[in-house]
Each structure stands twice: as structure tokens, then as C-alpha cells.
Amino acid sequence: MSGMEPPAAVMHDDLLKSTFANLLDSRRIQTEEGEALFHHASLSGLASLADFIKRSRFGNQVFFNDNLHVNTTNVCTLACRFCAFRKGVRHSESYSLSPDEFISRIEPYANSIDEVHAVGGLHPEWTIDHYAEMYSKVKSRFPWIHIKSLTAIEVKNIASRSGLSIIDTLRILKLSGLDSLPGGGAEILVDSIRDRICRGKESSDEYLSIHADAHSLGMPTNCTMLFGTIESISDRIAHLDKLRIQQDSSGGFQCFVPYPFLPDKSRLPEARPASADEIIRVIAISRIMLDNIPHVKAYRMNIGDHLASIAINSGADDIDGTVGNEEIMHEAGSTTRIDYSRDELSRLVESSGLIPVKRNSDYSHTEIYVRETNQSELRLPVLTGT
How far apart are the first and last CA of the chain? Predict the structure, then answer.
């Protein structure tokens, strides 16, 4: 970082200039400073600083992978106030995939993906046997596919229904083929907020502890933040601080995924949905504060392609993947396309002046992705004469 020219937008803002100096001296940005950045720093300067940090680590590269989202069930014993996905067991649109049905969802994509992302509701009947059979069948049929599955509350529910400890549950599931946890369900890691928007879910400490147990088994995980419900700026900063403190201890978070609440008129009417500027501000500050979590994702399934293209120039270095199917965000109101090819994803990255890099699930293998036709599809007219 010290060998790069600092952005002018940073050096002309006293608060950002001070933050930059702290970063150069390898001093962690404290929570008070994080709050000040939220309230007072210019958006352009904040985005420039976050982009500077990202480029110091990854250059112009932006990562994506070939993945498929498969939701195992929309039946859930909880009824979180922000969730549009959940259905009761007797609802006409409820479903619960058997292991063979889960396989059938993957099969059409199996030769073009290297990861399946699978989460779902808290099923009132499923025990660890259901998940172990599901994962082992996937590995038997498609051994090259990385299985990223289960939120922390799903792990807790499986353990409880199976009479097992969290660590034993994770150990058994890892042996059956589970490779990593996606990190969903963190919402805001402040229990007074969780009690209002997702009563009955795991506590903040339980979320962190479950991920720490996964890390202790050598299982990498992501971590997330749902913002724009009822939380304050202070709550968001506390959330980021808890994640990096946990990372100091267990070290297994590989990517942070912030995403805004998608509102409608019936769910959580008191929510304060985030504006586009606020979404970019959250992503930028996340990159500045999370000094020990390598990657920050612009989750385009939630924020859309336009904001994702801005976010990857504002601190985010990952844009998720080809996805193929997605229900949770789209039930909540997302209209983002889910059928992107590698070429279309890479075109989105290139349109922001960056380099698309195809990765595997744990970022241990990466390669620059080159489209067959790498020329711009949009050409401005050249005017001759007067």
C-alpha cells in the first residue's frame, strides 16, 4: 500500500487522511472512527479509500465462480419478520427436497459448475441423517462440486433435533461431504436487534461460536450482514467489530457479504431501507474496517448489476457467481437475472475497468478469465466533419 499513490479524494478530506495514515501504520480502525466515517466522510473519498485498499491486495482483479444455488426447503419453524421465503408446513407453496430431488436440481448444471450453495428453512422433521445422505450423494455423483451449505441456525437446529453437539454435527457433516458454510443468518450481531427482527434465532455469540467450531475443523466459512432494517449505524459498526475479533481468534472467515434488506409493505414496516449511496458506503467501510477478512463480496443477487459494478470499484473484490437459480432474494423482491454465463459476468466486471478472475470456492485456485470475444459491445459513434 505504501508504494501506491493515495487518491486525491482521500488526501483532501481530513478524516479520510487520518484513516489512511492509521492504515499505513497498520493500526486497526477503531469503532469510533468507523462511526465517524459513516456519518461524515464523503462518499467519493470513502469509496476511493476502500478501492485503494482492495487494489493494494488484489490489483484490478475481481473474482467470480461457477456456482448454483439450490434451496433445500422453504418450510421453517421460525417466522423472521424480514423473511419473504419462509412457508408454513401446510402452505400450498411449501416444498422439502429429498436427497434424490436435490440431486435432480444439480444434475442439469453439474458439468458447468464447481460449487453448489444450499441453504433452507428449519425443517421440523429433518435430522442430521437427511443432510448427511444428501451431501454424500452429491459427492458420489459429482465429486468435483464443492458443497457450501447451512447457515449457523440450520446447524444449531440439526444438532438439536439430532441430539448432538455443534462440533460433532459439523464433524459428521464434513465427513459426509460438507465443505464450507455460506455465512447467512448473521443479520445484525446485536441481540437487542435480533430479538426484534428474528426472535428465536441463535444469539450473536452462538453465530460466532458455530463458525468458530467450523473453523476449528478446517472448514472455511463466509460471514454476512443484513442492513437497512431497524439497526443503527452504531449497530452496524459493532457487527463489523465482532466479526474481526472472531477472525482474530479462529481465522476461518474467507469472505464478508453485506446486503441490504429488500422491503415490501407487509414485512417489517418500520424498516429504514438503505439507499444506493448507503449500500456503497457500507461496502466501502466494511473493506476499511475488516482488515483480517480477505474478501468483500458485491452480492449482485441482492444489490443488482448496476450497484455491483460500482461496488467493485468501492472496496468489493468478489461478485459471486453464475448462480443458475436463486429463491430467497427473489422472493424478497430482487429482479436481478439469475442466468448469467461466465462471459456475461466477465463483461460486467470489464465494463467497470477491471479484470475478471475465475476462482474456486476457497480462492485457492484462480485464473484470469478471457472471453472468446473480448471487444466492447458498445461503441460510441465517431463524428466526422461538421
Answer: 48
N residues, the chain: 386
Mean pLDDT over 277-299 rounds to 97
Q: For the chain, which domains are there? A: 8-56 (no CATH), 58-368 (3.20.20.70)
Cβ atoms of 299 and 336 within 8 Å: the answer is no
Choice among 43-57, 202-216, 286-300, 328-342 with the minimum mean pLDDT: 328-342
- Are 312 and 62 in contact, with CB atoms under 8 Å apart? yes
Q: What amino acid occupies position 101?
A: E
Percentage, residues of the chain above pLDDT 70: 89
Residue type, 175: L
Cell numbers 458455530 correspond to what residue? 210
CA atoms within 13 A on the CB side of 303: 30
Residue 344 main-chain phi, psi, to 5 deg: -70, -40
What is the reported pLDDT for 266?
Answer: 58
Please, which residues bridge with residue 297 across strands? 318
DSSP state of 291: T
> In terms of Cα–Cα distance, which of 95, 53, 101, 40 is closest to 73?
95
Nearest-angstrom CA–CA distance, 214 and 185: 15
Q: What is the DSSP letter of 372?
A: S
- Pair type for strands 146-149 and 221-227: unpaired
Residue 361 pLDDT > 60, yes or no? yes
| Contact in structure between 242 and 249 (CB atoms under 8 Å) | no
Q: What is the pTM of this model?
A: 0.91
Rounded to 10°, the helix 300-311/276-289 angle is: 80
3 pLDDT band, cuts 50/70/90, is low
Give the whole-angstrom CA distance, residue 145 versus residue 127: 23
Residue 296 has which C-alpha cell? 468483500
> At a CB cut-off of 8 Å and minimum separation 6, what does 140 contact?
none
**What average pLDDT score do residues 30-49 get?**
96
If we measure between CA atoms, which residue out of 360, 278, 274 comes closest to residue 318? 360
What gap in Å lies between CA 352 and CA 209, rounded to an integer? 38
Beta-bridge partner residues of 181 = 221
Distance CA 221, CA 107 (A): 25
